[in-house]
Amino acid sequence: MSDTPRAVPGVLQIAPYQQGKSKIGERLPRYKLSANESAFGTPPAAVDAYESIRDLLHRYPDGNQADLREAIADVYGLEADQIVCGNGSEEIIGLTIRCFMDAGDELLLSENFFGVCALYAMSVGAKVVTAPEKHFVTDVDALLARVTDRTRVVILANPNNPTGTYVAPAEIERLHQGLPSNVVLLLDGAYAEYVTAPDYDAGAELVERSENVVMTRSFSKMFGLAGLRIGWCYAPPGIVGVLQRLRVPFNANAAAMAAAAEAVRDQAWVERVRDHNARWLARISEELTRLGVRVVPSVANFYLIVFDDCDGKSAAGAAGALEAEGIIPRPVGAGGGDGHDVLRITVGDDDANRAVLDVLQRYLTA
Ligand SMILES: Cc1ncc(COP(=O)(O)O)c(C=O)c1O
User: Fold this and answer.
1) pLDDT tens track for 207-220
2) Considering only Cβ atoms within 10 Å of each terminal Cβ, which end of the chain, N or C, has fewer?
3) Distance 218 CA to ligand 1 centre (A)
4) Helix axes 89-100, 237-246, angle to 10 degrees
């Protein structure tokens, strides 16, 4: 009797990842606001660095990632030896889970979480445990209440996706203090560069004075390199040593590392994009609130609109109205266990944001 290859049980439980839409039917959109990509593209020096690699495509990249690690360390004042780069920050999240979790272990997440985290946990047969949020904000007490002796990794996206909310350093400190020292606390800072809140901290200092905290960062958002796939983490030496064992030698490609090293040095770019983003977040929130919907206070480059109790108006209705005008938003899971009706939209350039406000005003007042 013949048998067919069978995947390990955890893998079969995973539903293939659904990427944000990039077309409306067969048409390219006027504005794609579904994946929190940069409204301004890529810093020009990063594009030049990318192009400079064209004559070196036959060479393997630097498996030691030295230039990019040095550039990141210089800009942020970090220890280059404690940086590991990856094929997007999601690869680093996956590596951390695969290095520190086994079948039957528990990954603890806030109820609104970046889906890829669960996928990696399931692939190793680990269980995903979620903690409810308070008003779309991660609740440290709820997380701590769900720690068990099987908890191995806790991931806190800060700011979180799809809510855009953040947790202040004192709360992160309290979470860290409450966790057993054998649990890895991963602070996912994919949107850290956008935050203007004075009491925000992405966690580098906590990494430096602990043995169990990892901070991940992305070049996909602020630096407009989503297509090249490059991210990094800052971690204590013990954790770096473990990640380096499972990291494949050439996980970060040459073009991505060259472009990212130039991108991170362009802090004037960061300031300009951050200012634009903060200005529009405030304006969008004010205008939509006036129109009768709730906008979750965001510090990231996207915002979550809540259509609960909204007099016949819904997230699906708003998404339909936007798509009819060539704008793609991101319908997301209901923002938590209690079934909120929500829609996530990326902050775009001036024209895109005006177009969104115009369509939503017509939809909400019709
Ligand atoms: C919260 C969060 N973490 C991580 C990532 C992954 O980013 P990267 O492109 O660096 O893999 C994303 C991407 O959307 C995200 O929203």
Assistant:
1) 999 999 999 999 99
2) N
3) 7
4) 100
Residue 127 lies in a domain: yes
Q: What is the pLDDT of residue 301?
A: 98
d(CA 158, CA 205): 15
Q: Which helix (H) or strand (E) holds 243?
A: helix 237-246
User: Side-chain half-sphere of 253: how many Cα atoms within 13 Å?
Assistant: 15
Average pLDDT over residues 233-255: 97
**Cα 89 to averaged position of ligand 1 atoms, centre (Å):** 6
Structure tokens at 123: 């692939």
The rounded distance, in Å, linking the Cα atoms of 191 and 183 is 24
pTM: 0.96
Angle subtended at Cα 275 by Cα 295 and Cα 30, rounded to the nearest 5 degrees: 65
Q: Does 5 map to a domain?
A: no
Mutation choice for ligand 1 from 116, 160, 299, CB with most ligand atoms inside 8 A: 116
Extended beta strands in the chain, E state: 31-32, 83-86, 106-110, 127-131, 151-157, 184-188, 213-218, 231-234, 294-295, 302-306, 327-328, 330-331, 342-346
Number of independent structural domains in the chain: 2
Structural domain range at position 198:
44-265
